[in-house]
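ok so heres the complex, two chains, lmk if somethin looks off
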Amino acid sequence: MRSGQRDKGNQKTSGDYVGIDAILEQMRRKAMKQGFELNIMVVGQSGLGKSTLMNTLFKSKVSRKSVLATAQEKIPKTIEIKSISHDIEEKGVRMKLTVIDTPGFGDQINNENCWQPIMKFINDQYEAYLQEEINIDRKKRIPDSRVHCCIYFIPPTGHCLRPLDVEFMRRLSKVVNIVPVIAKADTLTLEERDFFKKKIREELRANGIDVYPQKEFDEDAEDRMINEKIREMIPFAVVGSDQEYQVNGRRLLGRKTKWGTIEVENIAHCEFAYLRDLLIRTHMQNIKDITSSIHYEMYRVRRLNENNTAVSHANGLPEHHLSAHEM
Amino acid sequence: MKLPLLDTESSRGFILRRTATTMASTEIARQAGEGARAVPLAGHVGFDSMPDQLVNKSVNHGFCFNILCVGETGLGKSTLMDTLFNTKFEGEPTQHNQPGVTLKSNTYELQESNVRLKLTVVNTVGFGDQINKEDSYKSIVEFIDAQFEAYLQEELKIKRTLHSYHDTRIHACLYFIAPTGHSLKSLDLVTMKKLDSKVNIIPIIAKSDAISKSELAKFKIKITSELVSNGVQIYQFPTDDESVAEINSTMNSHLPFAVVGSTEEVKIGNKMVKARQYPWGTVQVENENHCDFVKLREMLIRVNMEDLREQTHTRHYELYRRCKLEEMGFKDTDPDSKPFSLQETYEAKRNEFMGELQKKEEEMRQMFVQRVKEKEAELKEAEKELHEKFDRLKKLHQDEKKKLEDKRKSLDDELNMFKQKKTAAELLQNQAQQAGGSTTLKRDKERKN
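and the predicted structre for the whole thing:
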């Protein structure tokens, strides 16, 4: 195909409007009609305010607090994975939000391999998508149950990451976008918070953990600039609340204590607003894109190659043969 | 509106409609859109910016649109493309003596405000020019299939880059109908019938300024009824979205569009407009009373470009993919109706292929070994010959040497004998001198004798 370059953008007169840019409107219409899907997973020990944060983020009861009925009720022996979907709508935009909760994470005495059920769940979603994709008779829109984002709750100790945190994030940052947050950040003063954050960033760097937004997926200089600013702020120190209080004549979401009211959406008090903006208002599409075009593709390559090597070893073929041939 | 708190197990009525599943096994039962509860929001969350985020991403990425123009030579296909997109695309008018139908495609990058469009225009060269037109449609079908095939190959790759793949699948096929005023030609019907399951066909009446208004109405009716009676599925503008349903359904009734193309501008009143000037009047391209060009542009570009792309991907491409994979022997479920992994069948095919490859390799190796052996044998022969030659020469040499030795020996012997004779003669001479000089004469005589 011959490629002729004609950039007529500068030479148009007013009567020469073709209407190519109407495709943006068409895309918008299509998107509004189809609606969006978002799957968020929350991971952290019980009592860190995961459900409350989800409810605060989406301003509705999307997550159910896991309340243990009695004190005698046993701590669950295994980690459960609970997935709840909601249809929410705002200004004509419909979204199917799925919150995946992981009660029991980090609650046992021996927490070895507690990330395994979570890894398995994430990989199962990739597998389900892959299976549908390689079907001969496949659906028009493959239902997307892949985990787009995993919010990891760090307890506000103020010192450094615990071995469990490091292990978990190290393993999972390779398969899913991890957004670490400092939970219940109203127990830290500003200095403690800054120190804690710096320590956490150092530890993440030292362990080679790449959390969202990952450096290697920055597309251009503009992206890099925006993402660098975000990277300097993570992990976000958040406070969640679903109760409103009167502050200065306005009704705001907050936590009321004897020494004052913490306003959740006030950036001087906590960084909830930054988290919300990142997750929902600016980077939601980007999060989904990275999940589908990078994490999912990596899973797919691994999975398809698995079959190859299994079969090839049976045939006695050396592996390098297969890398040269692609379907 | 605040929801009632649901943290008591007694309110099972609500919980029933919620899809809350616990991971006892690895199954999560969730159908898209099914069973998820609608939840009202208590404030502004902000995900109404999602369409904007999506549009921004697409703008950064750029768009792709591929049009195929099918029609006889001389129906004004290139001119219409130029008029539609307001640019002068490359190419001179084609000759009429092509031996077969070939497809020529050109890609252009257009930009309008912040939208970058990679437009590919594919022209059928020589369509309808041959005497025997039975196979005319074949190269078109092959071309369309080849684009689907390329996309399918990319999709099936292990390491693939779908988001940066340049999509060459044909999104819209403009079928140019000659303005005879009577009915469709059989070539048109056959071609359209072959193409309707592979591409979105939009039939247009070319050079429609050759038909009068009344004839045009009859022509359009005739064409539509012929298409219907032959079961040709042309592209219908979608009417399921309320914002465009009305305009689309009106336009559907105006198909096929009667168009006139022109890149030349004529002064009408005080404006320069695209038009064709005749001695008896001027046909204005963008005047809706004169022709349907504006309608075509509206429908093709301004209203339904995205839908055309979507239909190509979700309907035509999926159909192609399904047929191709079934042809290659893949199935979704095996005879025991257990779900077949596509990969398993992949692997089976790949192993077949590898097996064949191995066999060929073996053959080549055998041949190679054979050749080497032969060459070795030849070389050995040559070596042997050389040895023999060497031996012979050596022998000759030795013989010669021997002869020379013998000759030398005999010469030496002669020399010795001569020396002996000489000494003997000298001795006698001395003796004779001592015996007296009287006998010198005698001796001289004797010596002389």
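quick notes: Chain B touches chain A through 107 residues (CB under 8 Å). thats all i got rn
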